[in-house]
Structure formats: C-alpha cells, structure tokens
Specification:
- About 25% of the residues lie in helices and about 30% in strands.
- The protein has four helices and ten strands.
- It has about 150 residues and is an alpha+beta fold.
- The chain is globular.
- The model has no long low-confidence stretch (mean pLDDT about 95).
- The strands form two sheets. Strands 3-6-2-7-8-9-1-10 form an eight-stranded antiparallel beta sheet, with helices on one face. The chain has a two-stranded antiparallel sheet with strand order 4-5.
- α1 packs antiparallel against α3.
C-alpha cells in the first residue's frame, strides 16, 4: 500500500488525477446528508453528469463507515475524459474534496477494487497497487510525497 504523506496540490494533484483516470474505471464522491444542504453541490454534479453511473444511499464507502444508522449519498462515476477535466477544474488539491466546498472523499476503483482511497477531512489517502508499472508511474509524479507500507 502506498501512503500519501502530503496533500497533493496543483500540478501534483493534476498528475495524480490523470494517473487515476488512466488506471481506473470508476470513482466516487460523497454527499453527506447530515452536514448541510446538498443542493449547494448542484454545479459540481452538473459538471460531472456526463460521467454519472449511479447513486446509492449507503452507510459505508471506500474510506468511511458511519454508525448510528446514518447514511450518505454515494455517487459513482465513470473514470473518463469528461471526469478528468472536471476533477482537475473543480479542485486544486486532493483534500479539497471536503464539505462545505465540495463533495467528500474522492476515491477511485479498478474493476470494483479500491485503488486510490481518500478521507479528505482526515487528510489521509492511500493507493492500493502492487503493479510495478503503476508504482513506477506514481514514483514519477514530481512532488508527490509518499511511502510504501508492506502488509
């Protein structure tokens, strides 16, 4: 597992988004019902509508498990060219995906498996890969601060 040590910002963020879109086939963002009006995110959702797959009301997603029977709206999207441009335009950092500015916890999946998992408010993110080509590309992102943990 690759642990990202510092919030990827600006060009580092854009390079990470490019790689995630290239590698993955799906991503998710979260709208928390208990944190304020979700209609404030209508412009964000409009920008991503061409990539939209589905929305589920769930108590668990890539980086979080809610207690007390709470749920949130988990929005799933195709990792496509529309999403690439939108994600890079909507935020300038990985941990920028946090309420009240944006939906939360941008995370990417490859064939249904977690690839890049983010908990924005905790300022934590991880990449799950053992693919040496992907690891080399991640290492090649200039300015990305990370370390590799063996499980």
């Amino acid at each position: 597992m690759i642990v990202i040590e510092k919030n990827p910002k600006k060009d580092v963020y854009k390079a990470l988004i490019d790689m995630a879109i290239d590698v993955c086939d799906e991503f998710q963002i979260i709208l928390r019902k208990n944190m304020g009006p979700i209609t404030t995110f209508d412009p964000v959702m409009k920008r991503l509508e061409h990539s939209f797959k589905e929305m589920k009301e769930e108590s668990e997603w890539a980086s979080t498990i809610l207690g007390d029977n709470q749920t949130a709206y988990v929005h799933y999207f195709h990792a496509d060219e529309n999403a690439r441009h939108a994600l890079k335009d909507l935020s300038n950092s990985l941990y920028g995906w946090v309420y009240p500015d944006l939906p939360e916890d941008l995370s990417f999946f490859l064939s249904g498996k977690e690839w890049l998992v983010t908990s924005s408010h905790e300022k934590e993110s991880y990449i799950h890969t053992e693919n040496p080509i992907e690891i080399a590309k991640i290492s090649g992102i200039k300015g990305l601060k990370f370390h590799i943990e063996t499980e």
